[in-house]
Amino acid sequence: MVTCASLMLAATLLSAAPDTARWTNDYGLALTETRQTNRPLLVMLDNPNDPEQAVANSQIKPTGFTASTLQRYHLCRVDVSTDYGKEVAKVFRASEFPSAVIIDPTGRQIIYRRTGRLSDSEWDSILTQYQDGICVT
Predict the structure, then answer these.
(1) Per-position DSSP letters for 10-70, written without gaps between them
(2) Which CATH number do you get for residue 82?
(3) How many domains does the chain have?
(4) Within-domain flag for 24
(5) pLDDT digit string (tens) for 25-53?
(6) Taking a C-beta distance cutoff of 8 angstroms, is the pair 85, 45 a contact?
(7) Residue 5 domain-assigned?
(8) Model-level pTM?
(9) Domain that residue 27 falls in
(10) Is residue 34 part of a domain?
(11) Which residues are within 8 A (CB) of 28 and not within 5 positions of it... i.e. 6 or more apart?
């Protein structure tokens, strides 16, 4: 039997849980949310079925520092092995994977682009450098 007290406790624990980074696979939705909330958009284009073309799991399901930094972005991961993913890759003119793209909070300007696997330290550095959605020269 579920009591009112146990429901209240569960609600309290869920509301106190840290916000985790959430990835969407819908680029259009992610771009719309970016424009509405003034947060940069991080798009990862990869083929999760091919280890050579996949982004590292430690980078998309991170803990610690990276997890808190990812919360500053809207996150979109697109599987380029699907028909939809192939179309999105064409939009970015990406032919090698994984490919990381960061778009400014207005959704109009790519402020960072990189093809190829990144080390965890490179990943953390890039996320920190572009977290405010400003083009760094």
Answers:
(1) HHHHHHHSPP---EES-HHHHHHHHHHHT--EEEEEE-TTSTTTSPPHHHHS--THHHHHH
(2) 3.40.30.10
(3) 1
(4) yes
(5) 999 999 999 999 999 999 999 999 999 99
(6) yes
(7) no
(8) 0.82
(9) 18-130
(10) yes
(11) none
